[in-house]
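Q: what sequence does this backbone want?
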């Protein structure tokens, strides 16, 4: 009675449809496992016993070695020195990169080298902070200066290449064009051009800028230059007196070349 009702017929149809889906999914998984295992055997050599899938049914996928490997990640250990260098008073390190060596590298190599140096700098700064916390001398602190010099020279080489490429493409040395101008205090500075929606002679904001030095400021400019020269002369005299005192106290000391 229940089977003859519309609800019972719909229930039977849904049950049959569910059984059909289970059968189709099981056959697809069986074929996929067989093809995966067969592919692994053909990639890594060896005789396959799966020539006839009906004679040797496969139920589970066998483990297969990956085709590529990734680098190991040490986590927070990357911020510390190698274990063999820990506790040492001095650590051997090479010389910093010179500009001549960096000019022979490609842009891709310079990009990789920048992150290598940055990683080394982070490690050395962490080591310096840890030594300061423990109130111990940092082993070979000159390594930080070597890394910083290498990074500064690398930036110089990259800027040189960008400038050369810009000169070839646009004929301008600076990435943003500009001009040397003076302000109302008599200082000369590099003014970078900006884009405005209206012409400069109609722009009130641009007209408020003073790119000239008034006449009553010129005496103060001369006084400022005189003050600068006096300070530089005073520093040079103090340095000479200091070296002379060291020479009298330590006669064997060599005087630096002037």
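A:
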């Amino acid at each position: 009675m229940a089977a003859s009702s519309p609800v019972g017929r719909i229930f039977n149809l849904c049950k049959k449809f569910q059984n059909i889906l289970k059968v189709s999914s099981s056959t697809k998984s069986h074929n996929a496992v067989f093809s995966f295992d067969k592919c692994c055997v053909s990639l890594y050599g060896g005789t396959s016993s799966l020539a006839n899938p009906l004679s040797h049914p496969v139920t589970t996928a066998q483990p297969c070695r990956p085709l590529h490997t990734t680098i190991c990640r040490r986590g927070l250990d990357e911020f510390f020195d190698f274990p063999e260098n820990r506790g040492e008073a001095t650590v051997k390190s090479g010389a910093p990169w010179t500009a001549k060596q960096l000019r022979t590298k490609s842009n891709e190599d310079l990009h990789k080298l920048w992150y290598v140096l940055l990683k080394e700098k982070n490690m050395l700064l962490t080591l310096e902070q840890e030594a300061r916390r423990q109130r111990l001398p940092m082993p070979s602190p000159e390594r930080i200066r070597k890394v910083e010099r290498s990074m500064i020279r690398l930036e110089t080489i990259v800027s040189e290449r960008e400038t050369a490429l810009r000169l070839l493409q646009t004929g301008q040395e600076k990435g943003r064009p500009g001009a040397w101008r003076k302000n109302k205090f008599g200082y000369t500075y590099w003014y970078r051009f900006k884009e405005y929606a209206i012409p400069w002679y109609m722009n009130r904001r641009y007209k408020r800028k003073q790119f000239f030095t008034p006449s009553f400021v010129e005496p103060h400019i001369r006084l400022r230059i005189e003050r600068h020269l006096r300070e530089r002369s005073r520093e040079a005299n103090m340095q000479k007196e200091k070296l002379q005192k060291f020479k009298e106290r330590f006669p064997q000391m060599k005087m630096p070349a002037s």
